[in-house]
Amino acid sequence: MKETIVISPVTRIEGHAKITINLNEKKEVDQARIHVTQFRGFEKLCEGRPYTEMPALTARTCGICPVSHAIASSKACDNLLAVRPPKAGRNLRRIINLAQIVQSHALNFYHLSSPDFVFGFDANPEDRNIFKLMQTNPDMAKDGINLRAFGQKIIETLGGKRIHPTWIVPGGVSHEITKETKDSILAQIPQAMDIAQKSLKFFVSNLHKFEKEINSFGNFPSLFMALVSKKGKLEHYDGLLRFVDSEGKIVEDKIDPKDYKEYIGEAVEEDSFLKSPYFKPYGYEKGMYRVGPLARLNVADKCGTSLADEEFERFKNLNNGKPILQTFYYHYARLIEIIYAIERIEELLNEKETLNPQIRAYAQINRNQGVGCSEAPRGTLFHDYKVNNDGIITGVNLIIATGNNNLAMNAGVTQVAKTFVDGNNIKESALNRVEAVIRCFDPCLSCSTHAQGIYSSQIDIRDHNKELIESIKRG
């Protein structure tokens, strides 16, 4: 008789999900899947709203990475207006987006994932949390709080508040920064960099403890997608899309993000509210790709800042210069990106043009469709808007970073479950590893649940032997 193991809820992630592990008659794992069980539906909620509301409105899809949505949304609105913000406006947008990446990566590494690194995947469940970390490793816990605070304070200083700032607007940003603000942020950089480098040293020095996890946590060939600069460098705010395969061969390059639909298809499965994007030329069955920090480092030729590039070289040497396939190394890539982001924030603040009071371009609707694309902490983010001539939203398509990773997350939980789960002797530590591969991707599920055409509720009626009599599904 076939059986199903259900992990519900998946812990130490943002949002709500469960994992099902299907066993065969021999109680061996056949397949595992992640099911996202919440629905937000912002693609429909935004219809009928004026385009000017979109950066603030779509930021409400998430309390962890609202800046990412505001950035992609404002870029889509720039496209509707057919304007390019002044250099100062672009620099300030870049700074706040990089601050978002620092604070979000720090949240994942310290608060969500580090208990596994510090206490081990086999530790007691009650010990694998940030509170135990605060008791046993208070300096590390404080470092996590301080590094995240560094990013959040920049967001608050520039945007007016740490969550859902309304400072990012169509055409640029709403107000400039002062020299005093610039100097205040620069003064915080040495401490942030010291913490980031300390965290990287801790992680790398402990990798030898997790060889089995490294080799089985989502370790498979796939495509990788990210934005890169015109020179092929790591890029988060602007740039062109690039796809590479598992051997490092560039499959598609220099793609204008507005043409994303030519390369990315979107599928919907009945068991999840999370869409499943795929590389359209390869089809749904073979078009799996990954996004996010691991993908960005696999796709880029270099980072472009000194300290990050030093570590980037060591990172690339893990596979002799070819793409790193092990999903476990998302954590490594995240730490390199934190160092890069801190360096770039310092560079951008020291650019003379950043203090220029010309920060915003003004225009009326000049196009009826606009696409905005940027790199959120978790990967490539698309906002695609259609408007009428009065600037009222008539259609929205969102491809969220976490959605881009959906096929890879399902492949990852299946691989981990087959490696660690024994249906005859189910151990909690094995199930923790199944969850942990999801934490490698750092999914932001409330951001990404916009799939339509699937059931929003299901009632199962069973008899006294728990045999299914009837399922009632409602849309």
Automatic annotation (TrEMBL):
<feature type="binding site">
    <location>
        <position position="447"/>
    </location>
    <ligand>
        <name>Fe cation</name>
    </ligand>
</feature>
<dbReference type="GO" id="GO:0008901">
    <property type="term" value="F:ferredoxin hydrogenase activity"/>
</dbReference>
<keyword id="KW-0408">Iron</keyword>
<dbReference type="InterPro" id="IPR029014">
    <property type="entry name" value="NiFe-Hase_large"/>
</dbReference>
<keyword id="KW-0560">Oxidoreductase</keyword>
<keyword id="KW-0479">Metal-binding</keyword>
<feature type="binding site">
    <location>
        <position position="65"/>
    </location>
    <ligand>
        <name>Ni(2+)</name>
    </ligand>
</feature>
<comment type="similarity">
    <text>Belongs to the [NiFe]/[NiFeSe] hydrogenase large subunit family.</text>
</comment>
<keyword id="KW-0533">Nickel</keyword>
<protein>
    <submittedName>
        <fullName>Ni/Fe hydrogenase subunit alpha</fullName>
    </submittedName>
</protein>
<dbReference type="InterPro" id="IPR018194">
    <property type="entry name" value="Ni-dep_hyd_lsu_Ni_BS"/>
</dbReference>
<dbReference type="Pfam" id="PF00374">
    <property type="entry name" value="NiFeSe_Hases"/>
</dbReference>
<feature type="binding site">
    <location>
        <position position="62"/>
    </location>
    <ligand>
        <name>Mg(2+)</name>
    </ligand>
</feature>
<dbReference type="InterPro" id="IPR001501">
    <property type="entry name" value="Ni-dep_hyd_lsu"/>
</dbReference>
<feature type="binding site">
    <location>
        <position position="43"/>
    </location>
    <ligand>
        <name>Mg(2+)</name>
    </ligand>
</feature>
<feature type="binding site">
    <location>
        <position position="450"/>
    </location>
    <ligand>
        <name>Mg(2+)</name>
    </ligand>
</feature>
<feature type="binding site">
    <location>
        <position position="444"/>
    </location>
    <ligand>
        <name>Ni(2+)</name>
    </ligand>
</feature>
<feature type="binding site">
    <location>
        <position position="65"/>
    </location>
    <ligand>
        <name>Fe cation</name>
    </ligand>
</feature>
<keyword id="KW-0460">Magnesium</keyword>
<dbReference type="GO" id="GO:0016151">
    <property type="term" value="F:nickel cation binding"/>
</dbReference>
<feature type="binding site">
    <location>
        <position position="398"/>
    </location>
    <ligand>
        <name>Mg(2+)</name>
    </ligand>
</feature>
